[in-house]
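Data availability (excerpt). The following record was deposited with the supplementary files.
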Amino acid sequence: MRKILLLAVTFISTFSAISQKTKKERQEENRNKVNAMVKQEEEGVISYRKSFSVGGKLINDGYGIFLEMGRAKSVSKGLLFQLEISERKSSKEEKQSNLYNLSTPFVFGKQNFFYPIKLGVQQETLIGNKSNKNGVSITANYGGGVTVGLLRPYYVQLESNSQYIKYESSDSSVFLDPSAISGGPGFSKGWSDVTIKPGLYAKTALRFDYGAYNEMVSAIEVGLSGEFYGSKIPIMVHEPQKQFFFSGYVAIIFGKRK
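Predicted structure:
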């Protein structure tokens, strides 16, 4: 029994020592790799030439998701090709519920959902790297592209006959009578009536990349964007319609480099 216990203790001690040694070796290899990459960048050698990332963003008047492909042109410059889908909302939107009906809540006076889809390119310029210990880089991004705004009519369900109506001249009085509404639309309602609003956009941002010397992208971006459309965008019935949207946003980004 003592021999078995002695063998077990010896095995555990040996395994622990090997694991510890392996961990230290990995840390040392990683430090050497980072130091080599820093030296290469100082000599003008590009560490990573391509990247693919996904992200989510909170906008002051909505939210969005995006895909991004990066291409390095030099140590300090690159291009970012982006596809973004978002939803813009009015600050006056407020969900209500019918007290006598457990149906979907509705936004009184909402005329359309508004989904901008953007396709564009950004110039990325390196402002500075911190020490190779934490590998945080700061880049300035600016650019723009085309945007296609999708207007999806907002439907409400009537209390009297359970039918759905959207805001039209023939139904405007009923649409704007909260006592006549029992609920709002589901996600599938209104897609067959979508209209398209083309436009252009521009944006500028600062990006803080915490995976600067890592194969994984891990970044936070803070920026401003402006969108201009060829005609006014009706979101709420009683709110002024706008052609130009200016907004600030915060985004979180994850991806991979190679």
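Summary of structural features: Residues 183 and 214 are 50 Å apart (CA to CA).
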